[in-house]
Each structure stands twice: as C-alpha cells, then as structure tokens.
What does this fold into?
Amino acid sequence: MLLLDHLKQAMLASHRSGVFGALLFIDLDRFKALNDSHGHDKGDLLLQAVAQRLTASVRECDTVARLGGDEFVVMLVSLSGCREDAALQAEIIGEKIRTALNRPYQLDGSEHQCTASIGATLFQGHQTSVDELMKQADLAMYRTKESGRDRLRFFDPAMQTAALGHADLEVCLRRAIGERQLVLHYQAQVAADGRVTGSEALLRWPCPERGVMLPAEFIPLAERSGLILPLGTWVLEAACAQLALWASRADLAHLSIAVNVSARQFHEAHFADQVLAILAQTGANPNRLQLELTESLLVDNVDALIEKVARLKASGVGFSLDDFGTGYSSLYYLKRLPLDRLKIDRSFVRDVLSDPNDAAIARTIVALARSLGLGVIAEGVDSEGQRDFLANAGCDAYQGYLFSPPLPVADFEAFVLRA
Ligand code: C2E
Ligand code: MG
Ligand code: MG
It folds into this structure.
C-alpha cells in the first residue's frame, strides 16, 4: 500500500516537473528450489539479504517494496525528462541492482548464489494508470524469465532498443577483438635514479565509430560479458611478443612489461598454464613479465589464488598489487601472497601534497611494503613535488605523466632511447 501511495505521489510530481520515473519488478530466479532444498529459514535469510542489497543500491528518494514471495518492486523517481536518457538511467540502476544481487550470500554459514530477473517500465505524469504500470513491469519481468533469466528487460521495445546502446557496444567489441583492432600503449615505469626500467601495458581501442575508447569505457562491459577472457589472452600474447622483440635489441632488452589481469581472468582454472604457454610460444623472458592484480582478487578462494601466483612466480613471473589501498586487502592474505610489490593507487598520490590523510596513507603503504619485504611503486605521479614527497617516504619506483603518458610502442621506444 505504501508503494502504491508513493507511486501516485511520484506520478503527480512527474506530471508537474515532466521528469520520468521507473518501476522495476524484481523476481529472484529459482528461489523455490532454495526453499525446498534448504528450508524456509534459509529462504527467509535470503529475502532479508536481498532487501538490504536493494535498499543499498538505490537513492533515499526511491522506494523499495516487497510484493510477496520473492517479488520485489523498486520505484525510481526524478530520472531525466528525456525518454531515452531516462531509459538509460533506469538500465544503469537496474544493472547495479542485478550485480548487487548476484554477489554470493552467506546464509547462516553456507554460501548461496542467486540471480534475479528484472522487468522495467518508465512513467511520466498520469499517461498510464497505476494498475497498467504494474502490469507492464510484471510482463517485462516474465519476458526476462522466458529469455533466460538474470537480465533486465524493458516493457516497451523502443526503450529496450535505447538501453541496447550497450549491446551494440558489446557486438562492436566482440568484432574488434576478433579483428585485432585493439592496441597496447606503454607507460614508462621509472626507478628512484630516473632510469626507465619498464612499462605498464594499457589497452586502447581505436573504435571506427566512437573514436579511441579508454579501458574505463569498455573493460567493465568486457568483464560482464565474458569478453575479458579472449581480450585478456590477446593482451598477454601481445605483451609477451613485445618482450621477445625487445629482448633482441641490446638497448631495450632490459625493459619489463606489467600487464593488468582482471579478477575474472585470474580465476579461470587454467590461467597459470595459459600464461606459461604464451611465454613458451613467444619466447619471452618470464623475469620481464609482471602481472598486476587487484585487491578484489583477495576476497574469496584465496588459497587457489596463492597457488597460481606461486606457480607462476616459480617460473620467474613477477606480481604487483595494483590500486593498493582502494580495496579490502586482508593483511593476513597479503602476508601469504608471494607478491613483489605494491602499487600505491593514484587517488592517494594525487592529493599527497595537499591532503594530510592521503600523505599519511601513502607513507603507511610504503612502510607496510618495506616491512613485508616488498617493493613499492607509485602510480599517477604528475608533479615533481609528488615525486619528492614519495621519494622521502622511501618509495622506490614511479609511473605517471611527470615522466611520460602511455604511448604507442614506437613513441615509447623513442622515449626510452632519449631518456
Ligand atoms: P591502472 O592499471 O591503475 O592504470 C593506470 C591508469 O592511470 C592508466 O589509465 C593511466 O593512463 C593512468 N595514468 C597514468 N599516469 C597518470 C597520471 O600521472 N595522472 C593520472 N591522473 N592518471 C595517470 P588507463 O590507461 O585509462 O587505464 C585505466 C585502467 O584500466 C587501468 O588502471 C587498469 O585497471 C585497466 N586496464 C588497462 N589496460 C588493461 C588490460 O589490458 N586488462 C585489464 N584487465 N585491465 C586494463
Ligand atoms: Mg595497472
Ligand atoms: Mg592502478
């Protein structure tokens, strides 16, 4: 009843202001199976956890309600006044909800996985009645169930197409990977004495329709769609082939390459074998390859992770923990993981001269690395002041615009030879 009341008020407000709102129908996939196999107590715990994740995923002005059973409704208000933009906003929030609900649940000691089917519809003013809106969202949810669950669909096919801007991108990215359109740029990594010791490989996608796309614009999509696996393999192959080329040049043979590895990629059962195979195929020296992991890897299945890292390390591959300080590293795992160095996240480096908290964090990370016997590199160093502060704190390597931006390989080589 409160939901219906809120919905009526939202329609009134939307009538006055012209902005759209959205109704999302959320139904948990295979909830009955959990109830049947693990009992209703577990089912109740799951519903409570779902309710918490839903409320945490929306703004204060939105409404979360449970209709009954495993059906929830989320009402979003104050979206854009433009239909396409509002559809996109609703899709983004809906995807955020779907991702939040997909995370594993701890139900009274046992882990449970659950997905959700989401149906969405937009409203503006009183164009559609309350009853009709509820039916639309419900119908969209049923279509989601029919088309394989674990998705969001809009009631209106036109809105679905607007939201599909995303799907287009996925099709394009898939093709780009197949046609090897993506390239690696290299950003210098510099030792305390100013020598360039190596580089980080950073993906760039020169998309014919959209211009050069940066990783932030397509890596999340690649991770969601699974494309990160072929993409990640290509990055490793390209970086190792580059190492082999440099090895044949006396003036470049000392350079290392750091490759970013997504958690999803690292969790693949055969990841270590794959890296070893690529090293063997390309003839790259494993001692020149660094893999950059992120703290999100340290959340679950850490024993399997440690085993993979140890195997690769035994063959000479090095490991850095990227964006350090932004995640949830357990110091216990950190001690057990055979890393080579920590990489101070650029968000701390940015304000290291102006924000005493960031300065304290940067100093602490350096001290932590030292006490664990690890190296430490700072990323995003773009001024001499920052470099000097970090050098004083005991940092031993740097990366950032102060030295060089990420460059196409020929420019990077020229930079190294000049330096
Ligand atoms: P990251 O690994 O932390 O990479 C460092 C990012 O900082 C790069 O952004 C780089 O261009 C940027 N940067 C370098 N120096 C400076 C500076 O002085 N100031 C500032 N403000 N920024 C600086 P980019 O290339 O856009 O990459 C973003 C992220 O995308 C990377 O963060 C990494 O997490 C991911 N990524 C890039 N390439 C790959 C890849 O091949 N595979 C995977 N899985 N992820 C990748
Ligand atoms: Mg990195
Ligand atoms: Mg980083």
The mean pLDDT is 92. The two ends are 70 Å apart (CA to CA). The CA atoms of residues 362 and 390 lie 8 Å apart.
